[in-house]
Predict the structure of acylphosphatase.
Amino acid sequence: MDAQHGISGNVRLSATVSGRVQGVGFRYWTRDQAEQLGLVGSAVNQPDGTVGVVAEGPQDAVEQLVSALESGNAPGRVRRVEKTYAAATGGLNGFDVG
């Protein structure tokens, strides 16, 4: 994460991923990436065809997840990742797929 965000310690990513991301294994791939980075959160299909991703953990790990989402290596085709960052709120266990 860059300094302009002004957040230190654990962070919370809230992202909406658009493109061809439903029915292609994208949520499970995202969970695998997040778990490898030690992040907790979820990846959930949204009614509009996007996938909502929430991830909490160290800022460098969260940024690595964002890089993976934007890398072109995800299943399907990611067109855009709209993301916001905040201080982690805690209370999440594991990484859920919904």
In short: Strands lie at 10-20, 40-45, 51-58, 77-87, 95-97.
